[in-house]
Amino acid sequence: MDKADDSSRQVSKWANLHRDILVIIFYKLDVRDLTMGASRVCITWFLASHDKTLWNTVDLAKFRQVDGESLSLRNFLNKIIKFFDIHETRRNLTNITKLSRSTPKNLFFDYDAYIEEEDLMFAAERMPNIEKLVLPRWSFQTKNSYQFAFSQWKNLETLIIANDSSLTGKLGFQEVGENCSNLINLKYMGDFEKNTAENIVRYLKNIKRLSLRCSSISHLGVLLLIRGLKNLAILNLSHCRESEWDHIRNLEMVTIGNLEQAATQKQVIFLGCSLNLNNCRVCKERPYCRFWPYGIKNWRNDEIKEFEF
Hints:
InterPro entries: F-box-like_dom_sf, LRR_dom_sf. It comes from Microthlaspi erraticum. The chain is α/β, with parallel strands linked by helices. The chain has helices at 2-15, 19-27, 31-36, 43-48, 73-83, 88-100, 117-126, 143-152, 165-168, 173-179, 194-203, 219-228, 244-249, 256-265, 281-285, 291-298; strands spanning 57-59, 106-108, 132-135, 158-163, 185-192, 209-211, 216-217, 234-236, 241-242, 269-271. β5, α11 and β6 (209-211) form a beta-alpha-beta unit. Mean pLDDT is 85; it is low at 66-71.
């Protein structure tokens, strides 16, 4: 009985901690531990887990972090099953928004997450105050889902996109431009072709900071951006490579030097690698095939601070 009483008193002490202290403790937890663990301990912890300071940023990648503790076959198979679970994103969003409500200003999807149309619309409806958004490469959306989502995100200032044409489909630049007048920061990572540049110039006229870091780029497309975006102030082409198709079709022979000269003439800050790419560690690590493992490693980093997350 004495041990039971001691245990009961110990639980009571934790349950009676001041809310501000609980919030400080919860801030140290990752999203999974907070939503699936701490918030379910008792009513006091449940109420503290709603504190707005905990939910400024929602980073869904933290739901998929690999446990380093065990490499058993069972855990390995569980990770594979979880990777291909197309409903995982919705479950995570549901659990998070029960606590966060409309508080979040930053929403980061996992690089390899699968987003259905309903997932994007659900996130936009539940979290309408997003200012910084990171979209994954596996995200087939329709015009309607893009229109609904970005009509909710009127405060959006920074958009980061990982694009794989075979997995992402057509991006909704028109829907973004029509709804997000505050958008001034754009990062695009993947295959950057001339038609993508044309859509950005047509619909995202207010862009001031643009990063194509680690992308395969069309030099003609980048030149179109420099000339067409009137408010462009800084352009990051660090660790980029000219796309093979563009190299074949580049009849005007637009070089990196031409791009840098055009940026200088427009008073655009131009960020790029050394002309001797052998001196660039990030470029040397880039494989000629299987780009996306390299992309996972690098997409959270950027020389422009607004794109780091």
